[in-house]
Each structure stands twice: as structure tokens, then as C-alpha cells.
Specification:
91 residues; 31% helix; 9% strand; 2 domains; alpha+beta; single chain
Amino acid sequence: MGSKETNFTPQLVVIMDNAAYHNVLSEKCPTSSTRKEDMENLLLKNKMPLTGDLLKMELCALVKLHKLRYKRYVLDYVLSAHEHTVLHLPP
């Protein structure tokens, strides 16, 4: 019983509802109170090109524009590590 094996066969599609305990974010999306350097680092980490030295409000607008890219759930990482696909139901 101490094994970390899953009972799923590889390459399943797991359909998730919108229960709060299923949708724990692995990384919180920045807000206007987030430090400028943290916003820049997050945009660069997610391969978003930055042009020149942007003001904090411009960075915040970029983050807001691409907000869906930052929604990564813990369960998605766990299931994809075992070659499963996760499909989230719309709200």
C-alpha cells in the first residue's frame, strides 16, 4: 500500500469539474501590488518578450492580457507527469 503507483492506465483523459479543491493553482497570478521585478521575471519565464524598460502599469497590463497562460493547476502537473491529459469543464 506504500507504493506511489497509480491505478490509471497511461494516456487517459481526466475530466475535472470546478471544485475548489481540484483547482489549486501552482503559481499565483501577479496583481498590481506585485513587485515590478517579479512581474518581469514571470513574463520572461513564460517566454513573453519584453521590449525596453516598461513601467509597472504596462507590465501589469501585459500580465492581465495573458492571464490565462499563468493558470496552471497542481493536479495538471501531477497527472501530466503520468502521461494523462486533463480537460477542465467550463465554469
